[in-house]
Amino acid sequence: MAGPVRMLLVEDDEAIAAAVRDGLRDDGYDVDVETTGLDALIALGRADYSVAAVDVMLPGMDGFELCRRIRESGHRLPVLMLTARDAVEDRVRGLDVGADDYLTKPFAFPELAARLRALTRRHEVLGRTDLVAGDLVLRLDAGRVEAAGAPVSLSPREFQLLRLLASRGGDVVSRDDALDEVWGTRHIEQQIVDQYIAYLRRKLRDAGSATAIETVRGQGYRLVAP
Amino acid sequence: MSGRDVGERAVRRRLVIGSTVFATIAIGAALLAGRMLIASQLESAAVSLARTDLGAFTVEYDERRAHLEQPAPGVLVGALEGDRWLVSSLPDEVQDALPGRDPDTVSVVSGGGGTWVVVGQQLPGESVSGEVVTAWAARDLESSHEALESIDRLFVLGGALLVALFAVASWFVVRLSFRPVEAARQRERRFVSEAAHELRTPLAGLRAQLAVVRRSLAEPAAAAQELDRADASAERMSELATNLLELARLEQGTAPAAAPLSELRDAFGGAVDDVRISPVARGVAIEQESPAELRDASARVDAVSFARLVRNLLANAAAAAGPGSTVRASLTVDDGALVLVVVDDGPGMPADFLPRALEPFTRGPGAHGPGSGLGLALVDSIARAAGGSVVLEDGHPGLRVEVRMPVG
């Protein structure tokens, strides 16, 4: 990843805050932790963050209120809400006050990393629409793929991995690159990349696509258009 | 027997006693009002009979003023001049009480051995001696009193019987209406104790694993392996807590939210991705298939619950089938229903366990890996809350689970 991503974590539980900060540091994040909504607003005024994760249950100003104020003050940074409750009303309310995504505690660390990655990515992707590689057309805004003219159903991570391969225009994508770009963490075993390549190959073959994913021994994978 | 049972019994007793006291007051008041009504009816009947006697007597007096005969003893009438009785068949007690009374008001005279109601009337003209003459008629109230007494006896006995009947009936009603409460209470108790038991198992594991880590800090490889196991224990507890919360939420029976099919498809894909990186799916291939095109409709389930349902089914299948196996998940829409099918190529489920597999805290024989026996129960609850159904069957090999939810 190019340069650390500055992230603001608003969490009053020290154990969780420390674990998330240390874990994300390995994944190229520079994490500032604040324990109250007020401190978070002050921190946002001082520095330029790329993404924020906000616990809903904060002392004093709660996460919803904080998120609302962040939006009111005109900040556009993506906000991920963290909560121990996954009642639908909470989720809807979180999205209503301007949060971009929602994660329920207890969460597995890789899940958090992947959500954050998707959020920072989503903002980078804005403005681009289609990506073409061989007989594949990736509709970036809708997250859909067409192979040889027919739609293919991919899961979100399958789509992101295919997008990564397509965006390299035939150059090799290493497993570490894939972990960074798709899952946003190296706290996952590398075999998951191989497994996802297998899923993608099967999907492309079933769709009758002539575009293939080639294994480059010792290096990674690359997309080969006919 | 727990303290809460005693509390419930006390509540039941209070309900029965309270309603019986209330019923006693209501029945007593009604009977008392009835008795007063009957008493006044009896008295007014006596008064009107007395008036009839008086009418006949005054006519007779007019006709035979000078030659009044002593009235027949059965009819209680008399003519009074000043304080002297010209003629009278009235009892002595009445004769003594009447002089000086206003003839126009109804009097009740009691004394000796009886009670009488008396009416009077001033006669026209004057007597020989020039004094006012009044005619009086009386009726014995003895028979009315006897009637009233027997009515009193009837009312007291009948009222007591009614109250007793009411008490018994309310006891039955209270008992009947508490029966579902009691059943729910028992279910809840069983649920809590089973949940606690399920929590203790991974907790015990976690503590043992942490102790091993402490001892093996000198060997990073061994420590790392033990930490992986500790992680799996923690994951098991997390899943349990999440499932318990979700079940509790569904038990509350809040109206299910609806989500468009496209959102549910995205939730399905996200859930597949989540399970693929979870420890339970290590070495398991999870294939997914979902429609690329969807019509503009929705199902009565929210995306979070649907994702939980998918995760539970996939984690269940992956845990049952084990490393090296393949789990296939497909989401389709057929006429009127969203259909999720999850098939694994593991050992499957014994036929005699299939009917019980959806109950909370049941685990198939030989079940291993993380799992509390809540996963499928929650799948069932979510599907039913959405008006849908879950069918388990032998997939030859493995297990085949089909969830259908109506689409509107």
UniProtKB/TrEMBL annotation, chain A:
Q: Does the keyword Transcription regulation apply?
A: yes
Q: Which residues are the signal sequence here?
A: none
DNA-binding region, residue intervals: 128-225
PROSITE patterns the record matches: OMPR_PHOB, RESPONSE_REGULATORY
Q: Which residues carry this modification: 4-aspartylphosphate?
A: 55
Keywords, comma-separated and alphabetical: DNA-binding, Phosphoprotein, Transcription, Transcription regulation, Two-component regulatory system
Concerning InterPro entries, the annotation shows: CheY-like_superfamily, OmpR/PhoB-type_DNA-bd, Sig_transdc_resp-reg_receiver, WalR-like, WH-like_DNA-bd_sf
Q: Which Pfam families match?
A: Response_reg, Trans_reg_C
Q: Where is the Response regulatory domain?
A: 6-120
All copies of the OmpR/PhoB-type domain together span 128-225
Official protein name in the record = Response regulator transcription factor
TrEMBL record, chain B:
Q: Where does the source fall among the domains of life?
A: Bacteria
Q: Record's CDD domains?
A: HATPase, HisKA
Q: Pfam families of this UniProt entry?
A: HATPase_c, HisKA
The segment(s) forming the Histidine kinase domain are 194-408
Q: Where does the UniProt annotation locate this protein? A: Cell membrane
Q: What is its main location?
A: membrane
Q: Which SUPFAM superfamilies match?
A: ATPase domain of HSP90 chaperone/DNA topoisomerase II/histidine kinase (SSF55874), Homodimeric domain of signal transducing histidine kinase (SSF47384)
Substrates-to-products reaction catalysed = ATP + protein L-histidine = ADP + protein N-phospho-L-histidine
State the InterPro entries in the record: HATPase_C_sf, HATPase_dom, His_kinase_dom, HisK_dim/P_dom, HisK_dim/P_sf, Sig_transdc_His_kin-like_C, TCS_sensor_his_kinase
- Membrane spanning stretches: 15-34, 154-174
Task: Offer an example of a GO molecular function term for this protein.
Answer: kinase activity
Q: EC annotation?
A: 2.7.13.3
EC class of this enzyme? transferase
As recorded in UniProt, coiled-coil segments are: none
Q: Which keywords belong to this entry?
A: Kinase, Membrane, Phosphoprotein, Transferase, Transmembrane, Transmembrane helix, Two-component regulatory system
Per its record, how is this protein called by name?
A: histidine kinase
Lineage of the species this protein comes from: Bacteria, Bacillati, Actinomycetota, Actinomycetes, Micrococcales
